[in-house]
Amino acid sequence: MDLPSSKDKLLYTPGPLTTSLSVKQAMLHDAGSWHWEFNERVASIRERLLGLAGLSRVAGWEAVLLQGSGTFGVEAVFQTCTPPNGKVAVLSNGAYGERMILMLQHARIDHVVLRTPENVPNNPAALDALLAEDPAITQVAVVHCETTTGILNDIAALGEVVRRHGRTYIVDAMSSFGSIPIDFEGCGIHFLISSANKCIEGVPGFSFVLCRRSALVASAGWARNLSMNLLEQLKGFEKNGQFRYTPPTHALLAFEQALNELDIEGGIVARGARYRRNHQVLLEGMLGLAFRSYLPADVQSHIITSFIFPLDPRFTFEAFYKCVAERGYLLYPGKISQADTFRIGSIGRLFEPDMRAVVYAIAEAIREMGVVLH
Ligand SMILES: *Cc1c(COP(=O)(O)O)cnc(C)c1O
Question: Are residues 293 and 206 in the same domain?
């Protein structure tokens, strides 16, 4: 068996991500999910998430943790907080926006979609027109960083429109929360979803929803689903400090350590600065090898970068992936429907030397495959 200190392959993905050794070591304990010591730690995690977001309970905000991956958190918001005859407007420019539509179809919730191409941000003017003409729309859902490409949507400009029309605003900030500061009040956010294993650099196991208490409480009786009922989940935490059903105990212990390490690094701004440097080093290196990135620079986030497949027919992603993986670096396939791409993430426990190293490994792989870049 590998020692805990042995080096895993580095993950250049949108999650789960490479975590620190100390985050992994924090899991080497068994915690009683009903025990007061553990419940105090869960309460402190909820408190610290609010603090990280610049929010407080006094000001009317709550942090609700939910078992499962990030998708479960997004689906729980729709399942819990859409009124019985509600209608959701989804802004989509990638796979995670499309996944929201699938969730609404499964829940038989009425919805309408505003699509832009995968390399074009969501359009606030189009949203304005849609909300003006359709008073049945109760909620607007948007993806902050659409991890499909790495494009950043302007949640402040969209939020201004949503607020003006008096609708509920739902933001999937899965891949951005923890490395991009978000002004909840300024953006008019009601529900924001993120998860343990993205920019906070914890391990997979739960998502969290930061929300206006009044908006969540207003949904009493609407939930279409038992285990993903966010209001009941909140009531559970308030009643006895516990998750309603078995919590991901080890993932919570790891998350607490990940929060400590985020504090030590200097918080969201410092973490964002490291990721931005990672992205810049990566982009310069890849452009230096004559790769082309998919997105225009002004909409590209520092989270993940999509690169277009080389034209040379000797390039296949499978062979390329294998070549790079053998050197200890795991890339990510593309998810874009409109272009052949692969993706390289800049988030997780990665630093500038790791970004140089992956570029070097990519250069070697390309040479080994005999691929010529133009
Ligand atoms: C990662 C991610 C999700 C959730 O994915 P899971 O695999 O369920 O954790 C949702 N939205 C975005 C934008 C993401 O990056």
Answer: no
